Amino acid sequence: MVRLIHTVDLTSSPRTGTMGGTPFTGRYFMARGPLVDRRKFLAGSAGAMSAAFFGGGPLDALTSRIAPRQSQVWDAGQVRHLLPTVSESRILLKVSFEEALLAAPTLRVGARSFPGRMNDTSGRFWQFYATDLDAGATHSLSLVAANGSSLCEPWTLSTFPPADARPERFRLLFFTCAGGPEGTYTGIGQRRGNLPTAIRNRLLRRALSFNPDAAVANGDHIYWDLHRWSGQRTGALSPRAETSNFDFSGSVFGTSNEAALMLAAEPQIVPVYGTNFRSTPVFFLQDDHDHWENDAAGAFPIAWFQLQLARATQQLYYPEFLPEANRPLGLPWSASSDRGYLSESFGTIRYGSLAEVLLYDVRRTMTLGPQAVFVDPTVEEWLLARTTSPGVRHVVHAPSNPMGWSAGKWGEWYPDVLDRAVGALTTAVPKPYWQDGWLSQHDRLVDAMSGMRARTPLVVSGDLHAIGAGTMQRSGTLNLASNPVTTVLSGPVGTSEGGFPSAVRGVGSSPSGHLDLVETVPPIEQHGFTLVDFLPDRMVVSLFRWDVNSQPLEAIDGLEPFYTTELSTP
């Protein structure tokens, strides 16, 4: 049952005011070399790396005007970015340092030590994998150099409760599309390109102020498409690919491709997250742009070189998915020995017996032809099994491709395409190269969700540059009315003004003609995020938004839900 708690008039004008920068107090610390101003380092690295590809200069004085309100309580030391993930008994960290470390550092978890594993060829990127930890406990963590010196201030991180525990609450943060090269912003309604990374970080810190227990970053962490997929030069190298000068016949690590990848990806990830998520487990799903292409016909299934870039980006910057007892180890991209048998594309968030969130990337295993699917049949089998299994109160799907709405793109679940004669999406016109098998798989998954009579089905998707919510009453010939599927668009963090569907495709997102979808929040093309609270008898979904065209930066720091709905459990 869906019960509306509160909402606001979606057409009302948000508050306006004057833009005011936040003063930043520089924090200096000793690395192996001269003193470094951390704010200048982050701004300089983003600007310098962007300049290598765009021909522009480093970030100007604007950076100081929109600098995030960094907490001065925790000293990051030599750490540039730190992203952790956890399960009930394991912790995985991805960390980069200001300078290369000549010997392996160590992660200390309480009295135990776990050696670091170098993820690049220079020693700036490391991962730490701690196992056999106490479940549902808050652990004290510290990073120590080979000579015993501290690399940053200690911090805490909690493992999830055991699968049979009965926690009273679990709060999960969802967002999408946080990537994109550095943009500019000079005031309300005045920007160019993606949101500046400092503003993206500010949005995420507002989300973190609500103390989520974990976060899902659902796809499009970078934008650096290597080919053109529209216009007169379809299939040719993109300007970014030409400037990047990748060697498509070579490997990534140990070649010039390694530096080129870092120059492209690092400014889109490191300043967005920094160390703000050090005590909040993160779950990063990859989508089309994370494979260095747009989801256009001809781009997928992905070419070998882009696949290597996608794997390398994940290896360097954000954690893979830890093993989970009810997820088979043999799923595709889940049993690579070079990743320690971590899963690259399919994950599980299991929080006691209260909640299980199924995370799946639909790009890595998508196929074409008579038996076309988005996710491999073995993955579908796992998803269906978990959806119908007892033992957990709430089961939520989190695919990288949105369910419910279409933007007329090729790589969607749905057959909708833009009819330019009428300026609207339709299913009456064939979508070139689209595959019926994708929709068949969609209906099998949705049917299983609606069939959970003891649960309220919920899908929280990524990819689509919008915030929205609705309930599926019908999907094709499937009648879902007895237990409708609530679907949510989690909200984009970094989208450029030209990246919203209405700008890039000439039409906004709308419910697919394959569905009967009751829109409680029609897609809103603004930046934002979603919080989901899991309780024993219900889920509470809260949507947040910030309008760059009408709201000042200061409004970010006071964002509250503009829409909240309660999904009571049958």
Please characterize this protein's 3D structure:
The protein is of the alpha+beta class and 570 residues long. It contains nine helices and 31 strands. Strands 17, 18, 19, 23, 24, 25, 26 and 28 form an eight-stranded mixed β-sheet that branches. The protein is globular.
Largest sheet: 8 strands, mixed
**Roughly how many Å apart are the termini?**
7 Å
Mean pLDDT: 88
Number of helices: 9
Shape: globular
Radius of gyration: 22 Å
Strand content: 25-35%
Give the beta-strand count.
31
- Helix fraction? 10-25%
What class would the helix/strand composition place it in? alpha+beta
| Low-confidence runs | 1-71
Attribute tags:
31 strands; alpha+beta; 570 residues; seven-stranded mixed beta sheet; 18% helix; globular; 9 helices
Which secondary structure elements does this structure contain, and how are they paired or packed?
Blueprint: E1 2-7, E2 28-29, E3 36-37, H1 38-54, H2 62-65, E4 79-86, E5 91-97, E6 106-109, E7 112-115, E8 117-118, E9 125-130, E10 138-144, E11 155-158, E12 170-175, E13 184-187, E14 190-192, H3 197-208, E15 214-218, H4 239-244, H5 256-273, E16 282-285, H6 304-317, E17 346-351, E18 355-360, H7 377-388, E19 394-399, E20 405-406, E21 417-419, E22 424-426, H8 436-450, E23 458-461, E24 467-475, E25 478-479, E26 485-490, H9 501-504, E27 510-511, E28 515-524, E29 527-535, E30 538-546, E31 563-568
Parallel strand pairs: 12-15, 15-16, 18-19, 19-23, 23-26
Antiparallel strand pairs: 1-31, 2-3, 4-5, 5-9, 6-7, 6-10, 8-9, 10-11, 12-29, 13-14, 17-18, 20-27, 21-22, 24-25, 24-26, 24-28, 29-30, 30-31
Helix pairs in contact: 1-5, 3-5, 5-6, 7-8
